Fold this protein.
Amino acid sequence: MMTVGKFDLLFWVSSIFCLMYVSLGFDPTDNYLIDCGSSKNTSVGNRTFASDNSDSYTVSTPERLFASTNSNTISSNYDSSLYQTARILNETTHYTFSIKAPGWHWIRLHFFPFVYQEFNLSAAKFSVSVKNFTLIREYQPQNDAEVKEYSLNISSGPLVLTFTPSANSFAFVNALEVLSLPDGLIPDGASVVHQPGSYQNLEKQALETVIRVNMGNQTVFPQNDTLWRLWISDYSYLKHNNLGTFVSKEDKVNYTSGGPTQDTAPRSVYGTATTINDDSDPRIMVNVTWLFDVDPEFEYLVRFHFCDIVSSSPKMLFFNVYINALAVVTDFDLSNRTSNILGAPYYMDVIIKMGDSRALNVSIGRSTVDSRRTMAILNGLEIMKMNNSKGSLDVLDSEVKSSKTSSKVKVWVMVGLAGGVLCTVAVLALVLFLLCRRRRKLSHVGHSVQDRFGENGGGNLRSRNMDGSAIFSVSKIGYRFPFVAIQQATDNFSENMVLGVGGFGKVYKGTLGDETKVAVKRGLAQSRQGLAEFRTEIEMLSQFRHRHLVSLIGYCDERKEMIIIYEYMENGTLKNHLYGSDLPALSWKQRLEICIGSARGLHYLHTGTAKAIIHRDVKSANILLDENLMAKVADFGLSKIGPEIDETHVSTAVKGSFGYLDPEYLTRQQLTEKSDVYSLGVVMFEVLCGRPVIDPSLPREEVNLVEWAMKWQRKGQLEEIIDPRLAGKIKPDSLKKFGETAEKCLAEYGSDRPAMGDVLWNLEYALQLQVSGERSNVNGGEMSQEAGSINRLPSGFSTAHFSMGSIDDIAGISMSAVFSELVKADMR
Ligand SMILES: *[C@@H]1O[C@H](CO)[C@@H](O)[C@H](O)[C@H]1NC(C)=O
Ligand SMILES: *[C@@H]1O[C@H](CO)[C@@H](O)[C@H](O)[C@H]1NC(C)=O
Ligand SMILES: *[C@@H]1O[C@H](CO)[C@@H](O)[C@H](O)[C@H]1NC(C)=O
Ligand SMILES: *[C@@H]1O[C@H](CO)[C@@H](O)[C@H](O)[C@H]1NC(C)=O
Ligand SMILES: *[C@@H]1O[C@H](CO)[C@@H](O)[C@H](O)[C@H]1NC(C)=O
Ligand SMILES: *[C@@H]1O[C@H](CO)[C@@H](O)[C@H](O)[C@H]1NC(C)=O
Ligand SMILES: *[C@@H]1O[C@H](CO)[C@@H](O)[C@H](O)[C@H]1NC(C)=O
Ligand SMILES: *[C@@H]1O[C@H](CO)[C@@H](O)[C@H](O)[C@H]1NC(C)=O
Ligand SMILES: *[C@@H]1O[C@H](CO)[C@@H](O)[C@H](O)[C@H]1NC(C)=O
Ligand SMILES: *[C@@H]1O[C@H](CO)[C@@H](O)[C@H](O)[C@H]1NC(C)=O
Ligand SMILES: *[C@@H]1O[C@H](CO)[C@@H](O)[C@H](O)[C@H]1NC(C)=O
Ligand SMILES: *[C@@H]1O[C@H](CO)[C@@H](O)[C@H](O)[C@H]1NC(C)=O
């Protein structure tokens, strides 16, 4: 058995390997388990690893040496009893295993370096190969236990595993496993979608398991897996662990005949999942993303495990799956693949070719097509590296990219294995259907990849290291500007260009390269608070577009800057037109139209989307006027999604502007849309009276505009305190309607205040009362304008992420509803 310079350690299927063990499920035909260097059999769970004490090269580690130096560093994922001993190989050595069952096999190599006499195993350096595949080249063990797993289709035996020490070094191994896999665990290559320039058949490949991940924040240890696999918790791979929700419902998993079995992945994998956070706003399209570090320039087989353990009925899941920003499957309907059986496991294999990047990103996101079914789920993930054309799996043999096209990544979907009870015909039909669809999708994917690379900068907002819960979900809307471009646009932030100064910083006028005028808000030195508002503002502005909300053009976060670029509003703030400047007085009709525009913008925020957005800082300084004096609401830095009634939520300090703050919010910290209604009520009196909300220079009773105006409103003598420049120009009916509306807005309790839509309606009515006679005319003009025009971004910017159509619709619907009510009211 021993030859000069070469050792053949032959392991026959002999009695010592027919050890008694009770398997949890699968009983491999070929099942070699060797505790290398050990003089005794070692039990690990239900398996027994045999000793290979046959010759003098067995190395035993005295217990004390091991225990005193390394006991704490052994990874707990595998049983450390295997790591007490090792076999040291100072010459090329072959382990030969006879194969009884041709087909896919696993080879697991366990390495744990320790120090034994003159051997410091950490100094080892060696290569391992099998057949003509290089599994490991010039390997230098790490300081921790490491298990490497390879999958190979052995069509004919024996399997020869060769350890080759590097020059002046040696090899070692602590334990070895060679076992046959259940049929179908790795699908045969027949169903691979071939692409030009693609790879050979899968059955001819050697695969190295990079990682197995169990979604749902729970590690599954080898002892609890039918095939002794380790499934690591996804927690540390989540890009933003606050976006996912972890679910564990193992009893929901229903392994049905024909689909994946416990051997595909155990119940503890299918029965736990990470889903998109329930609480996150469905309109804010987020992806849950996991980041993995892989060797570049290799192809990877990625297996997604799905199992609907969250729905109460089928057809509730509808989502997209991406790898490295490429769609693997869009609008994925899991129940369709599992014959509508809830809890039936399903998996999907995809092959991806990495470019020169080490980052393999996997994302799931809600489907945008069907807003009702918006849950996305992932239960498990396996990533396996495929050997390259040199027959190697080692990064040292990675292929240098031959051309510049290497950054293009290709995705092949191999097979969507049926999870439910599907007869062969149905499977075939499904596969064909998928293939066709895939083909179509692939060409589409190709384009979008091109597009993305074509875009300058790509404009990807990256969330910062903050504890805020939201992230930028906008990848393409907010355009990231280079700092130099903004310097140029603003004459290097010249004081001459300053349009205004606020708590956040200064606002500059700027002109972009294409002559587009912009307003540039530059945040003061980075405060945590400022950063949060900066993020909120970009997030909000890029999600929503409306002709009465100021548009976002871009942003810049280079060099720790916090710069937001908006469309330029020729006529500045409403406040500036009301008092404290020598601008010509606005007419009552103009003022009403401005109030209406503001209310319409806010109404859209409150109702235009599934969950209300609360602006929180409505004031005349945040209402901007364009060249036609059309109002647009600005400054979304404090905006919040949805009513906030959780009183335990202490961290939410009362924010807003003095004088405009809803007293109910102030005292009870209850934030609802009605807080914006209150603030708009304040703005309405400001508009009517043409004076600041708080004016300490006035006699005491007049200091607070709201108190002062409400006093006169209750007396029914509002005309006494109106802006003198409006004296005699407001029709009494219009003033009465306006005063009543403002009064209602300022009700002490939010529940008594009208909704923004009612405010809008009342303001429209007040306008009609003012202009009655020419009513139909005005209305016609207003309507056509409403239906026909929508804000356009300056040329050169596209509105990538929102659909013009839908927003048009929303604006149209709310407007026509208001209008029809108006007509009815008028006809009474
Ligand atoms: C290992 O177990 C086998 C089967 O039980 C037995 O034949 C063999 O003697 C054992 N070896 C040692 C060293 O205990
Ligand atoms: C060993 O197998 C038995 C019977 O299948 C099982 O009850 C037990 O939990 C297993 N032990 C381990 C450690 O897996
Ligand atoms: C390997 O070790 C054995 C025993 O120590 C020794 O006889 C042999 O010469 C060594 N071979 C090499 C290549 O160092
Ligand atoms: C293994 O490879 C052989 C030869 O390439 C092939 O005939 C066989 O179908 C493969 N087995 C599996 C399970 O893929
Ligand atoms: C063993 O080798 C490693 C790496 O070469 C080194 O860090 C470590 O200190 C060595 N240990 C001993 C006990 O010499
Ligand atoms: C997920 O696991 C991590 C690390 O084990 C733990 O810190 C965290 O609390 C877990 N999260 C949940 C929601 O269970
Ligand atoms: C295996 O699963 C059982 C039951 O879920 C659990 O009690 C046990 O701790 C698990 N063992 C390991 C090593 O994870
Ligand atoms: C599992 O699915 C089958 C259909 O294949 C169904 O008949 C059975 O009731 C399901 N079992 C459970 C526990 O839901
Ligand atoms: C993967 O994510 C990382 C971190 O977000 C990013 O830097 C990298 O560009 C992404 N890679 C791909 C290919 O999407
Ligand atoms: C989710 O990820 C995909 C791929 O990276 C991307 O195209 C899509 O825009 C992302 N969705 C959101 C809402 O970020
Ligand atoms: C899956 O979708 C296809 C195409 O929409 C449909 O024909 C088929 O009936 C669906 N299958 C199930 C089980 O819902
Ligand atoms: C490995 O050898 C087989 C024949 O034994 C050959 O068909 C195959 O192409 C070789 N693979 C590589 C990567 O050289």
In short: The pocket of 2-acetamido-2-deoxy-beta-D-glucopyranose (ligand 6) is lined by residues 217, 235, 246 (CB under 6 Å).
